[in-house]
Amino acid sequence: MSDVAIRVEGLGKRYRLGQRESYRTLRDALARGAAAPFRCARSMLRPGYRSTAKPKSEPFWALKDVSFEVKQGEAVGIIGRNGSGKSTLLKILSRITEPTEGQARTRGRVGSLLEVGTGFHPELTGRENIYLNGAILGMKKAEIDLRFDEIVAFAGVERFLDTPVKRYSSGMAVRLGFAVAAHTQPEILLVDEVLAVGDAEFQKKCLGKMGNVVEEGRTVLFVSHNIASIRRLCPRGLVLDHGAILMDGPVDEVTQRYLGVQNPEVSERIWTDTARAPGDDVVRLLAVRAKNRSGAVCSRFDVHGSVTIEINYRVLKEGHQLCAVLELLDATGQLIVVAFDRYTDGPWGKQSPCMPGFVRSSWLLPEDFLSPGDMSVNLRVFSPPLEPNAAPHVRELDVIRFAVADGMDPGSVRGSFPYAWGLPAVRPRLHRFTERLPSAEACPEAEAWPKKE
Amino acid sequence: MTQHSLSGERAAAMRMLDIRPSRGWRFVNLRELWEYRELLYFLVWRDIKVRYKQTAIGAAWALIQPFFTMVVFSLFFGQLAKIPSEGVPYPIFSYAALLPWTFFANGISQAANSVVGGASLISKVYFPRLLTPLSAVLTSVVDFALAFIVLIGMMLFFRIYPTWNALWFFPFLLLALMTALGVGIWLAALNVQYRDVRYVVPFLTQLWMYVTPVIYPSSLLHGVWRTLIGLNPMTGVVDGFRWALLGTGEAPRETLCVSAAVSLMLLLTGVLYFRRMEKTFADVI
Questions:
Q1: CATH code for the domain of A368
Q2: Span A116-162, pLDDT tens digits
Q3: A307 with A370: CB under 8 angstroms?
Q4: Structural domain boundaries, residue A313
């Protein structure tokens, strides 16, 4: 176990359902005890004793037969649906609850961030809570003294140190809680969805700090639903499903498959009933589809092929200028492309109104442009100029989906190189060329360099 | 050997921890408790700070309870019922007993609710769970210290000067501490399983007080009754306090031995039960 920080073998955790329904009362236990003293005393001493024998006591395995290894300095992201056992796994590794079977070995001090501001008492001041929270998280007083200023600077609460925490805004309290936890410097850091609270700036700060933690060579297990932050921080991902490990591998592969599992691809939608089609009394949507370069509707595209998004809609009333706008989002919800169509060209808001009838609009996404992944399409049809709070005629989010895959054909530059080259939103084929300059004179920046003898 | 490996001495300081399901009975891990002593200090510090932060009377709360109880007792039991007080004025007679008694009663009452009350900590952070009732009882020690000052004042007032025997009060205090811990730990663990235990505690405390010679001297009882209340560890404590500080009665040697034995047994069984139950705390709380 030289450089392995965490080793988990066959870990399992079973809960008994129905146990939380009603707390047992001493009164019941005494009554039962009077009836059958010895049997009662023996079973009372067994943990998990339930005084009323309910017929249903099915076991629920929150984790079953989980095994994996994490080396020192690795950052692993753990994803999974709600109830898949992620928090239970962290709780077991933090020794908050005991496993029912299997074992886990950790090397080094384990710091767990299962909740921000654990142990904060609202009546105590910020300064006092820093000491209290630090002690709860395992820091010695001397350590806290040493890092006190850093913690305060990170949280940005210098002016409020001597005010009771109950007067803090929720953002300040969360920042302070994270600041203390981030400075505990454990060898293994377990983080459970703490970034769900807090504003964007706070989340950025937290991620940055966690990135520093990884750079310092500490091991991090990061549980989150925010796939984008997992991808940014962790090169390795683990997917839990119903208490078992579904996938374990490079993060972009794992997240792609995880998100793909949840999102079926429907790349064409048709509405035959005008009354129920999206839209209002001015415009009604009839169809939205994704086509490849031969004109066929399909849901999987090669990265070297073009994608045409086509919509059909019906204009019901005359006298309205209309504009359709397409939005393309990737699997993490990141907006990649925004494209407008204009029914007739002309200055914004001053186009000629559309005549009633059927209209088809299409957008051609060029080949060698999109990044591999699952794409989702949002569509709006509105009358320009659209006021910020006014509703468009048609607003359909996630109306169709399609997938773009990199075929990795041997003839391309990429060839069969299996790893992802970062996670770009788009990877267009840019016009570029490389030439060797004939002499130093042709390159003005070379003047300062020594001439070759 | 990765690029970001940790420095040598840090690597040496890293400890391996084995996490596996525990079976059977286990005793307290004293080394671990010692490691977490700073947390214990902070928990006690937190409870005291919070208790006195917003009260106008502040620290005086620790004094008011035993003092006014003493006043009421002196009126009804001292004056009206004329209960004998072994040669010293009844007020100080009862206060010398109320002092450790209040410590015990408050200690077990706070300990009983400590684990359930600390649910938010227990379900989020690891620390030896025994710290929770331990810190609750230690908070009462601080209150005891404050109330002790009043006792000194009363002794001066009644012109009762302590002899060297007064130093004996410290072992008796330790006995009270051990008893409070034993009972408190039992109650804390029981309360997690059976939530109505906290309602039983005030009743339990009241009954226990009558069985302890707080209001009356233990010399009032004879024979088998004397033996029976001798089984109560607090009897030894109260008699001991009175003998050490006021010089009444005789050194309660036999009572002390019996009390210490009972108290130790309560503590050991309490710790064993608590440790057995604590693995389910985070799940049940």
A1: 2.70.50.60
A2: 777 888 888 899 999 998 888 888 899 999 999 999 998 888 999 99
A3: yes
A4: 268-405
